[in-house]
């Protein structure tokens, strides 16, 4: 009898797990997206929303930063936008962090979905929007110059928070590495030919406060992406005549939280940093087919005790100062007192 009861319970749990992961009210197969939900999307939002941008470096989530984001969403309904995966982010929001009424997920597989009335209705009704990780090339191809991109801009202008991690972070700046070359550019390749075909930068995607002169990068220190961010800044200064663009690299398990006043703080679960690159000039040598030379590029590191004031890029209590020298495609870091 006990074995029978155990078998029934086990089967019941298995069926429940499958049901929880199944799409809810899914559209036709050719609609270009899948939909999932958890919680009660019709429940009223407990508190008012407030502006906030959460720039997450990828990997594990720094939960204190996500609680900051949820508070600015009024502890209401979080909508997750992605182009791969399914329910993992919504389950982490609802079950592991908690404090929200519901989470909904839209998984895009086609550009058509970015004009779908149901998709736009879900996004426009969100209390907080979260752009998940994956491949930012899909986000550029599916979302750029669509009603969805406008809806994301409108969401932020209405005083509601937006967060992005990894690929979702990559598209938050005014300038974007779109990864449209079919891979993920390394620092070595970027420095060897910053004007080459792997530096697929784009713009005019999202238009967010405080990030209008910023390009972002994720998984920063662990994947040694300092070189490629410097190469992107050189490309923007030379080809687009924009030497004032700043690069923000965010480490894994780390996030930069930007408030409505521009005051920005770091949350990290592993002592990670946010890296601010702002050379404010053109590179020393930048030409198609030639390795980059860009000397004395200043870097300011932000830790959990630091404050970044935007749009001035003024830093209080920096975690470190450094200078990067790039000479003929070779990069070297020098500590600065």
Explain what this protein looks like in three dimensions.
With 337 residues, the chain is α/β, with parallel strands linked by helices. The protein has one domain (49-335): Rossmann fold (3-Layer(aba) Sandwich). It has helices spanning 2-21, 63-72, 88-97, 117-124, 136-143, 147-157, 167-170, 187-192, 226-239; strands at residues 33-39, 53-56, 77-82, 102-108, 128-131, 162-165, 175-177, 201-203, 214-217, 246-250, 254-258, 263-268, 274-277, 294-302, 307-309, 314-316, 320-327, 330-335. The protein has a 10-stranded mixed sheet with strand order 1-4-3-5-6-2-11-12-15-16, with helices on both faces. A hairpin with a 4-residue loop joins strand 11 (254-258) and strand 12 (263-268). Helix 4 (117-124) packs parallel to helix 6. The longest helix is centred in the N-terminal third of the chain and has 20 residues, at 2-21.
């Amino acid at each position: 009898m006990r074995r029978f009861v155990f078998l029934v319970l086990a089967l019941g749990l298995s069926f429940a797990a499958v049901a929880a992961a199944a799409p809810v009210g899914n559209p036709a197969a050719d609609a270009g997206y899948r939909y999932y939900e958890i919680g009660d999307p019709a429940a009223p939002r407990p508190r008012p929303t407030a502006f906030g941008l959460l720039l997450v470096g990828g990997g594990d989530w720094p939960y204190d930063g996500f609680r900051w984001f949820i508070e600015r969403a009024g502890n209401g309904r979080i909508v997750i936008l992605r182009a791969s995966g399914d329910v993992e982010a919504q389950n982490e929001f609802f079950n592991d962090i908690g404090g929200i009424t519901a989470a909904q997920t839209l998984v895009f597989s086609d550009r058509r979905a970015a004009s779908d009335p149901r998709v736009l209705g879900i996004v426009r009704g969100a209390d907080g929007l979260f752009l998940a990780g994956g491949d930012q090339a899909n986000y550029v191809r599916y979302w750029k110059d669509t009603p969805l991109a406008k809806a994301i801009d409108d969401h932020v202008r209405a005083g509601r928070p937006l967060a992005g991690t990894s690929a979702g972070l990559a598209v938050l700046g005014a300038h974007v590495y779109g990864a449209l070359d079919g891979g993920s550019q390394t620092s070595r390749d970027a420095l060897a030919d910053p004007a080459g075909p792997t530096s697929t930068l784009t713009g005019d995607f999202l238009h967010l406060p405080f990030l209008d002169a910023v390009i972002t990068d994720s998984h920063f220190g662990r994947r040694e992406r300092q070189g490629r961010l410097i190469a992107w800044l050189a490309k923007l200064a030379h080809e687009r005549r924009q030497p004032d663009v700043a690069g923000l690299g965010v480490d894994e398990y780390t996030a930069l939280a930007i408030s409505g006043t521009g005051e920005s703080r770091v949350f990290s679960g592993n002592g990670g940093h946010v890296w601010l690159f702002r050379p404010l000039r053109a590179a020393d040598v930048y030409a198609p087919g030639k390795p980059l030379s860009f000397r004395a590029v200043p870097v300011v590191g932000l830790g959990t005790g630091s404050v970044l004031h935007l749009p001035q890029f003024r830093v209080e209590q920096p975690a470190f100062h450094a200078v990067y020298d790039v000479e003929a495609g070779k990069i070297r870091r020098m500590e600065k007192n």
